[in-house]
Specification:
By secondary structure, the protein is α/β, with parallel strands linked by helices. It has a single domain, classed as 3-Layer(aba) Sandwich (Rossmann fold), CATH 3.40.50. It has seven helices and seven strands, in the order βααβββαββαβααα. β2 and β3 form a beta hairpin. α1 packs across α6. It starts with a strand and ends with a helix. 35% of the residues are buried.
Amino acid sequence: MIVGLGNPDEKFRYTRHNVGFMVIEKLAKEILPFDKSEKAWRKEDKFLSFLCKAGSNLLIKPKTYMNRIGTAIKLLVDFYKIKPEDLWVVHDDIDLPLGKIRIRLGGSSGGHNGIESIINSLTNANFYRFRLGIGRGKLDLKKTTDINLSRRMIEKFVLSPFKDSEGGAAKKMIKNTVKALEIALDKDIDSAMNRFN
């Protein structure tokens, strides 16, 4: 089960916090025939999610907001009897430079509300994370490059769209993450880690 993290409202669609959704949508288009990929997403209210079945894989976009995403994941994991290591979560990471990808098993939430919600709901942190660097917002890039944003400003930053100057790096990262997922599905996750970490 591959879950992209994001917020469901249209106003959040192209924000940094929604790169997980962007990757999952692109992955569906890559692994399904074009005519099917557009119709493959189903709204499943009982799982609080949008689901796309691709062979034996489930692609998920939770409908809950980020802070409650674990509720949807718990419903899905229990119903489909998914083992923790067969749960792959794709999400933004403010602590990675823009464009960087890191794949890892387990660990803390790193302050990401969506990951924290999943860990709390599953009472298990032993799932794979595909962490996508969205950059670390700064107060003033010229004068204060080493001053991190306050929590309130971080929330504003992650809910902002990528700047025009960042668009190329963001698109490349999304494309590479889809490739990493395809390698993990076709071969194994270690092969994806060796290539992209």
